Amino acid sequence: xxxxxxxxxxxxxxxxxxxxxxxxxxxxxxxxxxxxxxxxxxxxxxxxxxxxxxxxxxxxxxxxxxxxxxxxxxxxxxxxxxxxxxxxxxxxxxxxxxxxxxxxxxxxxxxxxxxxxxxxxxxxxxxxxxxxxxxxxxxxxxxxxxxxxxxxxxxxxxxxxxxxxxxxxxxxxxxxxxxxxxxxxxxxxxxxxxxxxxxxxxxxxxxxxxxxxxxxxxxxxxxxxxxxxxxxxxxxxxxxxxxxxxxxxxxx
Amino acid sequence: xxxxxxxxxxxxxxxxxxxxxxxxxxxxxxxxxxxxxxxxxxxxxxxxxxxxxxxxxxxxxxxxxxxxxxxxxxxxxxxxxxxxxxxxxxxxxxxxxxxxxxxxxxxxxxxxxxxxxxxxxxxxxxxxxxxxxxxxxxxxxxxxxxxxxxxxxxxxxxxxxxxxxxxxxxxxxxxxxxxxxxxxxxxxxxxxxxxxxxxxxxxxxxxxxxxxxxxxxxxxxxxxxxxxxxxxxxxxxxxxxxxxxxxxxxxxxxxxxxxxxxxxxxxxxxxxxxxxxxxxxxxxxxxxxxxxxxxxxxxxxxxxxxxxxxxxxxxxxxxxxxxxxxxxxxxxxxxxxxxxxxxxxxxxxxxxxxxxxxxxxxxxxxxxxxxxxxxxxxxxxxxxxxxxxxxxxxxxxxxxxxxxxxxxxxxxxxxxxxxxxxxxxxxxxxxxxxxxxxxxxxxxxxxxxxxxxxx
Lengths: 252, 455
Ligand SMILES: Nc1ncnc2c1ncn2[C@@H]1O[C@H](COP(=O)(O)OP(=O)(O)OP(=O)(O)O)[C@@H](O)[C@H]1O
Ligand SMILES: [Mg+2]
Hints:
The complex is a heterodimer of chains A (252) and B (455).
Chain A: E1 2-10, E2 16-25, E3 30-35, H1 41-48, E4 56-61, E5 64-65, H2 71-78, E6 81-84, H3 96-101, H4 110-114, H5 120-132, H6 148-160, E7 166-170, H7 178-195, E8 198-202, H8 206-212, E9 215-220, E10 223-228, H9 235-242
Parallel strand pairs in A: 3-8, 3-9, 6-7, 7-8
Antiparallel strand pairs in A: 1-2, 1-4, 4-5, 9-10
Helix pairs in contact in A: 5-6, 6-7
Chain B: H1 4-14, H2 18-22, H3 26-46, H4 50-71, H5 78-96, H6 101-106, H7 112-119, E1 124-125, E2 128-139, E3 148-151, E4 157-160, E5 170-176, E6 183-189, E7 195-197, E8 207-208, E9 215-220, E10 232-244, E11 248-249, H8 251-284, H9 287-290, H10 294-312, H11 315-326, H12 330-354, H13 358-366, H14 371-405, H15 413-422, H16 426-454
Antiparallel strand pairs in B: 1-11, 2-10, 3-4, 4-5, 5-9, 6-7, 6-8, 6-10
Helix pairs in contact in B: 1-4, 3-4, 3-5, 4-5, 7-16, 8-12, 8-14, 8-16, 10-12, 11-12, 12-14, 13-14, 14-16, 15-16
Magnesium ion is lined by residues 41-42, 170-171 of chain A.
């Protein structure tokens, strides 16, 4: 269970990206964060695994305080939380396999991993995860030789190497075309339904959010303006979240 | 005078630009004035030929014309004015740099020995044993001249139409019993023992025996010093190739090979040491690593400044300093190249650190990796390939530079090449130049391949 308690984030330049945000995520939920560009979705997700330090508030994961964890504890918490990025964030010059294996770094001994000595078990696990996302035949290609959709699947395979209990995804399909977007979202759905992994995913297409979310949280100017059932977002709520001018485009 | 155009033209005739300034075009007038003054100054100071006065006159006239156009309300022809102002500058430049097209063409033949050296580089040669058939020849005649025959080895005979004479006289030379089609050379040895080739039909070239083993040729008695009342015996020798070995690598070719090796090693050492030392400089010189802490900022500026200063000094000049410092030889060259390499690679390395993509680093941090793992998996894969590519390219550049550095005593092939050029040994120099070209081309290909694969 993830508990976000009164979290605020003020950047060095004075931007208040999050303002007193609180919510909880139960195990097995598929939570989607929506909101306008600049509403603080990325900031929220990055606070959860402390790629960004929140300015105020606390975040607990399974009762453990992430915000006050020392570096060692933090690494241990991080390895349980996978993360997938909008721009995939693969090491472009490294092979697909090496990118996927890097998801296992939190569990491996420093020396052997730095020397590239991976156990047969880890390699096997990497190939399995690549097979799961359907690109095991690309294992030895350089990451930048893959298409966008394939790269995002490598990103997912990398996160799955952590055997995470919580998966964060920051607009994982925003740089993919709609058809690919759906197929990538289905990997998260599968992970959520078959392994019981909790998912927190930010999306900017409401249609996708409705289709995959078990719950939606909407942020506006760093504050939670909606937290509830995806189906209950009607036109009035939609305008509240996205502003009066907005018109909903759904996929298909 | 009522015509404003004419008045402005007059102003500009007296002081260039004045007419334009008067018409309200102040900056234009000032520019014209300054340029004209510079030209006048250069012409007077450098004491140049009339051609530059002519150029100046054209510029001056264009300035007057420009003032006239402007004051008359017409569109000024700025491009033409600029050309006219540039003309005297070109004329001055031409004279200052001693450009001499006539000499360029008329003296072209002087380049011939160099070109010949390049075409016949001294890589291979065969050792030749000469057979000799000699005749005495008196300068001047002690008694009336006689024809004389002498026996050459292998039963050949040579007949000379007169056995004495004066320089410039023509002498017939006939021979029989030589090997058909053999090549012969004619040498003159004076009483002191100095040898020289004899011109045959005005040429130094060797001549050939015909297919029957005979020859007939005409030679001119060379311009040797003689005393009218003291005839002395000179000797006229026919030399022919008695035996020759197969082609063998010459001593010079061996020298070239060893010095080319020295050059490559020099570049290798400079690149290796330079690359190692460039690494700390590049870390300190990478803006994204040094941001934040003011102490780091200071380090950043120090290392940037050191690199910029080092890079602005030509390796050739550094080599001169190091030759004085550690003495002639390859070590001085290595030092000079190393200094330059530190600066050049340090800058490139730090640029590739600065252009690093932080996305993957963040992603790897998010997996729970520690700092060492983040460096090994997120940072190094991004910087090592470009570093290798830059380093190989540097080696390639360093080889070129080290050939040049030899000219000032920094060791390597350039040292030899400079010597041979000074001694007019163009065939040896040709060998050195060819060797440099081959090595440079090969390295260029290799480094291009490496870069292609890594970047
Ligand atoms: N590193 C930073 N420094 C200063 N301000 C930042 C920084 N990162 C984000 N911000 C600001 O914080 C606010 C929230 O940004 P955030 O990236 O979290 O929004 P988002 O909802 O993810 O938007 P998008 O949909 O465009 O990704 C924005 O106003 C943004 O300009
Ligand atoms: Mg974002």
